[in-house]
Structure formats: C-alpha cells, structure tokens
Amino acid sequence: MMTRDEAITLIQNKVPNDNLCRHMIAVGAIMRHFASRFSADPELWEITGILHDIDLGTTDDPQLHGNLGAEWLGAMGMPPAMLQAVRAHAGHVPCESPLDTVLLAGDQLSGLITACALIKGRLLANVTADTVRKRFKEKRFAAGADREMIRLCETVGIPLDEFIAEGVTAMQRVAHDLGL
Questions:
Q1: How do residues 40-88 score in pLDDT, each as one tens digit?
Q2: Which residues have C-beta within 8 Å of that of residue 119, sequence separation ≥ 6?
Q3: Distance from the Cα of residue 1 to its chain's centroid
Q4: Cβ–Cβ < 8 Å for 120, 126
C-alpha cells in the first residue's frame, strides 16, 4: 500500500486539474474519518478516496471512468477492495461494502461542502453542518452533488445529519491542502 503523500504525488502527476486533485484529497479525508466507524483500515480508506478519480486526467467517458482507474490501480498492486470501490463509485458494479458506499456518498458530499465553503469566504472554517444541511435542501445549489447518492450513507448505518457534520469536520482537517 502506498502512503498518503505517495498517493497525492501520483494524482498530481496523473490528473492535470488542480481542483479535481483537491476534490480527491477531500474525499480521502472523509474516507479516513469514517473508517474507524467500521473498524476498517484508515490508510486503505483514505488512499481509496484519494485515488478514486485517478483516470479523470485521461478520460471523461463514463463507460471508462472507474474501470480504467481500477485497472491501473490493480496493475500497481492495490487491494481488491479498493478496485471494487473505485468501480462502484462510477456505477459499474453495485456497492458491496461500507467502503464502497461511503466512497460513493462521500464523493458527492465533498462537492456540496466545497460549494458551501466557496460562498462562505472560501474558508472551510466558516462552514457548519447547519449550512450544509440547509443547502442540501436547495436542489439548485451545487446541483451536481447528487443528494440521493449522499443519502446512501444511511444504508450503512450513518444518519444523514451525522454524515454531513462529520464530513465537514473531516474536510476542515485538510483545509490547508484544499486551499480552503
């Protein structure tokens, strides 16, 4: 397994879009935070979050995204659970584990939290769970953040309000890396 720093270096070399790299780091932070809830390996969960969109510097084809990333990660010797989660987040296979589900939900939540930070002085420190919950109800706000995908957190026993609050906390821990 690679380290967090190695994973970040890898995505910075593979994915030319800085905002996308920051998104991947944010998802990694959310994943690390929730790993303990499932007595899971926090490094595996964080690295999965960081690497989940690794192929978006190469393709934007929905049929390839996720599958290509999982293929690359498999060639690097990454664990099968990571490959499954990367494929599941892109909709190619069903979610089979909390890792898969939290990645799918956290991927969407990170976008909603980031959008809230952008309207709160570009600072995650200014974002509260209440802010995100309020904006969650506004369909036009951060319209790309799929609310039904975020709600999947409930299928693995994480209440939506808790998922939002802890997601905000997780991203605030890496605010410096996110430029927020």
A1: 999 999 999 999 999 999 999 999 999 999 999 999 999 999 999 999 9
A2: none
A3: 19
A4: yes
Mark residue 40 as left, alpha or beta (left: phi above 0; alpha: psi -120 to 50; beta: remaining): beta
Helix (H) or strand (E) holding 99: helix 98-119
Classified as helix, coil or strand, 90 is: coil
Q: Which tokens sit at 164?
A: 């939002």
Chain-centroid distance, C-alpha 34: 11
Range of the domain at 65: 4-178
Residues 6+ away with beta carbon under 8 Å from 18: none
Cβ atoms 23, 114 nearer than 8 A: yes
CA 86/CA 91 separation, integer angstroms = 9
Distance CA 169, CA 27 (A): 12
Report the sign of the C-alpha dihedral through residues 41, 43, 49, 54, in that order. Answer: negative
What's the length of the chain? 180
Q: Which two tokens stand for residue 95?
A: 């979610």
pLDDT at 53: 98
Q: How many domains does the chain have?
A: 1
CATH number of 23's domain: 1.10.3210
Type and span of the H or E element at 33:
helix 18-35
| Rounded distance between C-alpha atoms, residue 135 and residue 110, angstroms | 13
Q: Using only the alpha carbons of the chain, give its radius of gyration.
A: 15
